[in-house]
UniProtKB/TrEMBL annotation:
It is an enzyme of class 2 (transferase). This is Acetate kinase. It holds the Pfam family Acetate_kinase. One of its GO terms (cellular component) is cytoplasm. Belongs to the acetokinase family. Keywords: ATP-binding, Cytoplasm, Kinase, Magnesium, Metal-binding, Nucleotide-binding, Transferase. GO terms for biological process: acetate metabolic process; acetyl-CoA biosynthetic process. InterPro entries: Ac/propionate_kinase (IPR004372), Aliphatic_acid_kin_short-chain (IPR000890), Aliphatic_acid_kinase_CS (IPR023865), ATPase_NBD (IPR043129).
Amino acid sequence: MGTAGEPRTAQHVLVINAGSSSLKYQVVDAASGTALASGLAERVGQTGAVGHLRHEVGEDVHERELPLPDHGAAMAAMREAFEAFGPELASANLMAVGHRVVQGGPEFSASVRIDAEVVAAIEDVSDLAPLHNPPNLAGIRAAQATFGDLPQVAVFDTAFHRSMPAHAATYALDREIAQAHRVRRYGAHGTSHQYVARTAARELGLAPESANLIVFHLGNGASATAVAGGRSVDTSMGLTPLEGLVMGTRTGDIDPAVVFHLARTAGMSIDEIDTVMNRRSGLLGLAGSNDMRDVVDAAEHGDDDARLALDVYCYRLRKYIGAYTAALGRVDAVVFTAGVGENSAPVRAGALRGLENLGIMLDEAANKSVRPGAVSCISVQDSPVTVLVVPTNEEWEIAREAARVVQAI
Ligand code: ADP
């Protein structure tokens, strides 16, 4: 495992994904995607809770409990884990630290090297992602303090979608209000969609800039993207990740007047409605679990709520295939990725049921025998639209982006 010692080690990037109470990391070779080591610090900055660090090097897993009062402490614990259990960061010859940043707002249409201005700009759009950008910034500051000699690169979840044309990005909302408060569609999961779209194009034998794709990233959060010529031209998430597909705990598309109705008739506060729509709805709200495995299992055992949840979920996917087929004109492939997309044959079958008139013909046997972690074609040979399962790899994409930015300097 690893490429230490080869000239290509100069491509190693430390990828950081800092969440509100966690810090995920991975050292990735941007050229090959090989992960030298990865880890997760949890319960960061939570009063009364002891932190937990898990550090993995190949098959070796090292775990320890320790106080993690903030992201700086998590970064220090990560560094100590590298020193204690390897690989040695000095000999990995890191070329950059790549940071996942959820919201880049209108400003960022590509990954950038982080300086004081970039930090200020990320701060400035934090109101658009109040749960994500502040911890992302905490991760950036901690990495700057710990790895001050390395270039730091921000890779935005929204950047891939900045190519959306105005007619897809604009809400038909009062123009002055929308402009004053930067209300428009930004999308999310862009790093995953970008990686999966490029991988799918290669699988189809097409240049990335000539592939027309409908990509479904179906994890706990879920989004669809229409990719024309390798660029995002529409995506299902909007100002926030609440819009679009049915998700683990989010409603996805819903009449906005439901908010007024609940405020007026149920006397719920805006924060309560926010919690219901973001954390207590979707599969969880309909079927009692946000894990698709539980929902499919219950539906197969005759649970009506689970059956309906699955039907609502898959019907939404079919509607988006219809919409994005109209947006794209020609579709080369429908592509599934992330936890549900890569693993759930019933969901893929449900999403594609009855779409033969759109040229989508599923190979039922291939759909049921997808190998975990492998790129698979699950459409019949003469299907006009190919259907692919492509495992996502956001860490590799962040590493590639960071390497590209650093090499371009
Ligand atoms: P995220 O990164 O958004 O947390 P993932 O992409 O890891 O999510 O996907 C997590 C979800 O994938 C789980 O909530 C679960 O519903 C689903 N999942 C994982 N494995 C399977 C499986 N074998 N069958 C169906 N769903 C699965």
